[in-house]
């Protein structure tokens, strides 16, 4: 009789819990936002050069020519630009600009989707060549 009572109590509790305490659906975490961090490589200015090193988070770098401008979430390439010069689209996380004229120069680095749409803010670095 005790086993029957325990079984009935367990069944009643289970039915009560299923009816009044629904299981919470576990939400998927939001997708990580891609990010980059660019820094100047030390000691380049006196050689009339500027080196940039970039670290990318939560983003897959894909050759822009191979991607054929098809946007895919979470992948793309880097865009570099020295002053008002042409934009260099590449997967390279290290890049050097050579034969710089004396004075101040600005290097912009940004993430871009496969179709070259900007993904997030552009990071700007400044270097002074003596």
Please give a structural write-up:
The protein has 130 residues and is an alpha+beta fold. It has a single domain, classed as Immunoglobulin-like. Helices cover 18% and strands 39% of the residues. It contains 2 helices and 8 strands; from the N terminus they run H-E-E-E-H-E-E-E-E-E. The strands form 2 sheets. Strands 3, 4, 5, 7 and 8 form a 5-stranded mixed sheet that branches. It has a 3-stranded antiparallel sheet with strand order 1-2-6, with no helix packed on it. Strand 3 (60-61), helix 2 and strand 4 form a beta-alpha-beta unit. The longest helix is centred in the N-terminal third of the chain and has 19 residues, at 2-20.
List key phrases describing it.
single chain; 130 residues; alpha+beta; five-stranded mixed β-sheet
- The strand count comes to 8
Enter the CATH topology name.
Immunoglobulin-like
Radius of gyration: 27 Å
From the spread of the alpha carbons, the general shape counts as elongated
């Amino acid at each position: 009789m005790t086993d029957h009572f325990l079984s009935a109590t367990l069944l009643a509790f289970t039915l009560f819990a299923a009816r009044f305490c629904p299981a919470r659906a576990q939400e998927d975490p939001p997708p990580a936002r891609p990010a980059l961090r660019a820094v100047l490589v030390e000691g380049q200015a006196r050689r009339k050069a500027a080196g940039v090193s970039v670290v990318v988070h939560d983003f897959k770098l894909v050759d822009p020519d191979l991607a054929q401008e098809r946007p895919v979430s979470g992948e793309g390439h880097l865009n570099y630009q020295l002053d008002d010069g042409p934009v260099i689209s590449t997967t390279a996380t290290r890049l050097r600009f050579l034969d710089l004229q004396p004075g101040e120069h600005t290097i912009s680095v940004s993430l871009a989707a496969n179709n070259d749409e900007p993904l997030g803010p552009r990071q700007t670095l400044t270097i002074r060549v003596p």
